[in-house]
């Protein structure tokens, strides 16, 4: 088994909440980021909090799709709404909870329980999500279907 290495190049300018940065990933994609305005930051581009949520949800979406197909459950596309919660801000701020909410396109609503079971199992199979388990409460909301 090989070890894989991934990288991102980041630049930051400014002090604390007044600063902003840019992350270059995948060789040619640059994403601007700063502290979110809700936390007194500049609110430029995305935020580290949104990047964490997006990383977990991206891994989860691919894992869920693969597991639904493997289980023989109909799916054309899926959409994930990911929501992160920071508690104790500003004195004891902690990224405390991340919830993924799957929406299935082309699914069979009569098998709702099966979709929910696979959605829960995908949370535990997603390797990026595993990186936060034990440190952040990681939940799966109710599976919904696009035709509802």
Poorly predicted ranges: none
Number of helices: 3
Biggest sheet descriptor: 4 strands, mixed
Label the structural class.
Answer: alpha/beta
What oligomeric state best describes the polypeptide chains here? single chain
Helix/strand layout:
Blueprint: E1 9-13, E2 20-25, E3 29-33, H1 48-70, E4 77-87, E5 94-105, H2 112-125, H3 127-130, E6 137-140, E7 144-145
Parallel strand pairs: 5-6, 5-7
Antiparallel strand pairs: 1-2, 2-3, 4-5
Notes on the structure:
It is a single chain. This protein is an alpha/beta fold and 148 residues long. The protein has 3 helices and 7 strands; from the N terminus they run E-E-E-H-E-E-H-H-E-E. The protein has helices at 48-70, 112-125, 127-130; strands at residues 9-13, 20-25, 29-33, 77-87, 94-105, 137-140, 144-145. Strands 4, 5, 6 and 7 form a 4-stranded mixed beta sheet that branches. A 3-stranded antiparallel beta sheet has the order 1-2-3, with no helix packed on it. A hairpin with a 6-residue loop joins strand 1 (9-13) and strand 2 (20-25). The longest helix has 23 residues, at 48-70. The termini are far apart.
